[in-house]
Design a protein that fits this description.
186 residues; 2 domains; 10 helices; globular; binds fe (ii) ion
């Protein structure tokens, strides 16, 4: 349990730093709900809960510390280094690192483990709780106009929906995805 708390604290501290690429906002709006969903799925599906929780906290650390581009690669490197420092076993570091490397559905890779798929699903599910943040990313960070943002958010949410493989996740998110389509499709 201690390792999870130390990793959570590390992520919180990095989000608080002035060097955080996205400020502190993502800690509450993305990391916290994402880890909650990931943990629930891991428990329900009999996955390795510790690996899933650690990977959940660290999956976007590359985005925070380095930037969005290739954040699955930078994040896996940062995570491995940090976990090594904390004396976490090498074989388990590799499992966490793979979850982070494979968490971007847009860069699909094969033969995911259950833990890897849970990270992808929890990441997608948590986006549906943060549609304001997704709009902000399009309008503010990517500097799109309103029409471009509408299309971009609709596409993003559709991609997130398409990444879901577990019936449990689909059931939970279906009403929200249908609402997104009603509101954003023309
Ligand atoms: Fe994420």
């Amino acid at each position: 349990m201690e390792i999870i708390e130390r990793i959570r604290q590390f992520v919180e501290d990095e989000c608080r730093k002035s060097t955080s690429k996205y400020g502190f906002g993502p800690y509450d709006s993305h990391f916290v709900p994402m880890v909650k969903y990931a943990k629930n799925l891991a428990v329900e599906m009999g996955a390795d809960v510790e690996i899933v929780e650690i990977a959940g906290w660290l999956h976007d650390i590359g985005s925070i510390m380095v930037g969005r581009e290739d954040h699955h690669v930078t994040g896996a490197e940062i995570a491995s280094k940090k976990l090594k420092e904390l004396g976490y076993p090498e074989d388990r570091i590799a499992l966490v690192s793979d979850c982070i490397l494979h968490h971007r559905g847009s860069q699909k890779m094969e033969s995911e483990t259950l833990e890897e798929q849970i990270i992808i699903e929890a990441d997608s599910i948590s986006c549906f709780d943060n549609i304001v943040g997704i709009f902000r990313a399009a309008l503010v960070n990517e500097k799109k106009n309103e029409e471009e943002a509408r299309i971009s958010v609709l596409n993003k949410m559709t991609n997130k929906w398409n990444q879901l493989r577990f019936e449990k996740s689909k059931e939970r998110i279906r009403p929200k995805y249908e609402a997104v389509r009603i509101l954003l499709e023309r």
